[in-house]
Structures are given as structure tokens and as C-alpha cells.
Amino acid sequence: MSHVRLPVNTPTGDYEVLIGPGLLDRTADYIRAATPAETMALVTDENVWALYGPKVARLLRDSGVRVVEVVVPAGEATKSWQRAGEVCDRLAEARLDRTDAVVALGGGVVGDLAGFCAAVYLRGIDYVQVPTTLLAQVDSSVGGKTGVDLAAGKNLAGAFKQPSLVLADTAVLGTLSGSEWASGLAEVAKVAMLESREMVDGLIDAASVILGRDEQRVVDVVLAAVRHKAAVVAADEHETRERETLNYGHTLGHAIEQVAGYGVIPHGIAIAEGMRFAALLAEVVVGASEETRALQERLLDTLGIERPLYPRDARRLLDAMHADKKARAGTVRFVFVPQPGHHIVTPVDDATIAHALDLWFDGDSERG
Length: 368
Ligand SMILES: NC(=O)c1ccc[n+]([C@@H]2O[C@H](COP(=O)([O-])OP(=O)(O)OC[C@H]3O[C@@H](n4cnc5c(N)ncnc54)[C@H](O)[C@@H]3O)[C@@H](O)[C@H]2O)c1
Ligand SMILES: [Zn+2]
Fold this sequence. Notes:
Elements: E1 4-10, E2 13-20, H1 27-34, E3 39-45, H2 46-62, E4 66-72, H3 81-93, E5 101-106, H4 108-120, E6 126-131, H5 134-140, E7 145-150, E8 153-160, E9 165-169, H6 178-195, H7 197-211, H8 215-235, H9 250-260, H10 267-286, H11 290-302, H12 314-323, E10 332-339, E11 342-348, H13 350-367
Parallel strand pairs: 2-9, 3-4, 3-5, 5-6, 6-9
Antiparallel strand pairs: 1-2, 7-8, 10-11
The protein binds nicotinamide-adenine-dinucleotide and zinc ion.
């Protein structure tokens, strides 16, 4: 099966996203075409290294590239300021210069960390994304946001840095665990809610094929999500208006990730919980219909996205929401989707959020 190419145009750079099974076999050709670098730091985590690292390193070396292997521990805790410093030290020790490049082979953690290092090392060198999780292929590898977490909150230090190329080999998704698969599907569900009723219905109808990881269907899903994100990012690279909508589910989602402890709950699973809560809050704040909430529940349930366990502590979750970048002038902001394809971004006061969280947790205990 051949692959698809999607151009992404932003004010600070244009690049292509390549999507399809088997692209990894030709990594070196594609990467060599996208950057003139002679030395490349191949940044990956331990799990991904074990599965695909030696192959990618060999292909690059065979094409004449000097490869510097940088393998970091797997997991969200790796997305730290300290780890970014260590990776930059490795680049300096290996004497990468301004014409060299970073290749991020892995999920969103590796992509965000390696991209951040590429953005700051020598004030910026080329970087290529080879996303290996569904979440990274549909979301984090596109758009140019890179960064690390701080103790106070997710992604609080970072930089905008567009990659030179995104190479999404859908065949590597075959080795993902069920929960990582569900985590990626949550971001796809988010896109569907923002995009249209048609996309929501399409996902529900195709759910069993998608859960079976059908080759063609997976390509279609990744393409649809990337297309949506590319369009939003092209219009608003630095998140002033449109791009804020991509934070649907992330207000509570990021708070859950922080309160549960970074890495305990996969990103997308926390985001899905945030979407479920946002739908309830939207009924209270903007008079959204119960029907939309029911539809979204069906979408998430059909895609096999289960609700996570985390501290049901409204106070701590609210504090975490305030630490988030999305809070402005001391007020927490929410993205609401009153109907598929329509969104509202609005500040919500603490008392209303706290009350809705209590309602939400009461509902949990009633459901048992
Ligand atoms: N920059 C952005 O715009 C953006 C957008 C969304 C999410 N993110 C960030 O992305 C991160 C989450 O990314 P993620 O869900 O990919 O997590 P991750 O990078 O931690 O990967 C999840 C797990 O899957 C393993 N893995 C990766 N590829 C594999 C494969 N092919 N087979 C088997 N196992 C594999 C990893 O080793 C890890 O254990 C979060 O930090 C989130 O904040 C960033
Ligand atoms: Zn996300």
C-alpha cells in the first residue's frame, strides 16, 4: 500500500507529513531529502529503541549519516527540564553543529523533548519527527509545539519549532499496548467532536474495524486527524484563537495528569475524561444539550476508551487547572462543544467548576 503526503504550511516553515505502512524501511531516503545534515542525533526511548532503534540507526548509517544514539527512559517523567539539559549536553559532546539534525523516534514524550532540544541547542537545528504512537501520529508530531513539564504543571517550558519532516509509519502502531492505542483514539475522538457530526458517526460506525487496527482504516484515521490539525495550525500557529480549540478536554485532562502523577495515566485517557466532564459543564454554562453529551459518551465508549482512576479531589484539580497555561488572568478557560463541529471558548469561575466536579463525582458513586 502506498503512502499519503500532506503538506503543512505555517508562517515559520512548510513541511510534509508522510503517512502509511512501511515508511520506516525508507527512513533514510526521506530524511536525507528533508535535511542536509551529515550528523544526526537519534533520540528515542528505551522501549522504542528495543523495537525499532537499531534498524533506523543502520539505515541512516548506510546512507552515510553519522548517527549519535540518545536513548532516554520511557514515560512522561522523561519530559523534564533536567533531561532536556542532559540531551543537549550529549549533542554538544558529540559536536553537533548548526547544519546537523535531531531525529525524534518515539511517542509524544520523545517528540516534545527532542523537539525542545532541537529548538534551543545552538538556538535551533533541524529536526525530523518519526512518531511511533497513534497519539503522536495524530496529534503531537504536527503543529510545532515542543517542551517539557515543570513541577507546577504540564508543558510549562517550551518553544515553537516546526519539524523539517514528519514520517508516520502506521505499521509500527501494531506493537502498541491497548491502553496506548485507546489514548491515541481519544485525541481522534476530540478532533471528530470539533470537526463534524459526520466524522463522529463515521468513527462510531467503523469502531470495530479501527479497534482491529485495519491497515487502510488506520491510515484514514491518522490522515483525517492530521488534516484537521494542519488546517488549524496553518491558520493560527501560536494559539491565539483557533488553535485554542485543540485544547478541548485538556483543561481537566492536564489537571488529572498532574494530580495523578506524571505518567500514571496515558495522556489521551486523561483528555477523554476531560471531554466527558467538559460536556457536563457545557450543559450548565452554555446550555448545551444532553444529546451531545450522550453522543460523545457513545463515541468514547465505542472506541474502547475507559474512564481512568484518579483522586476525586475537586480542590486539588482546581489548583492544577489554575497552574495550567490555559488559565488567563487568574481565570480557568474551557473549550465547549455544544454540538459536533461547533465550539465555544470561555472563562468559567471556580465555584461553577467546583460545583460541577462535585456533581460529576456524585454521579460516579451512583454508577457504583
Ligand atoms: N506537542 C504537542 O502538540 C502535543 C500534543 C498532544 C500530546 N503531547 C504530549 O505527548 C505526550 C504523550 O505522548 P504519547 O502518548 O505518545 O506517550 P509516550 O511517548 O510516553 O509513549 C507511550 C508509551 O508507548 C511506548 N511506545 C512508543 N511507540 C511504541 C510502539 N510503536 N510500540 C510499542 N510501544 C511504543 C513508549 O515507550 C511509551 O512507553 C504527552 O507528554 C503530551 O503532553 C504533545
Ligand atoms: Zn493532547
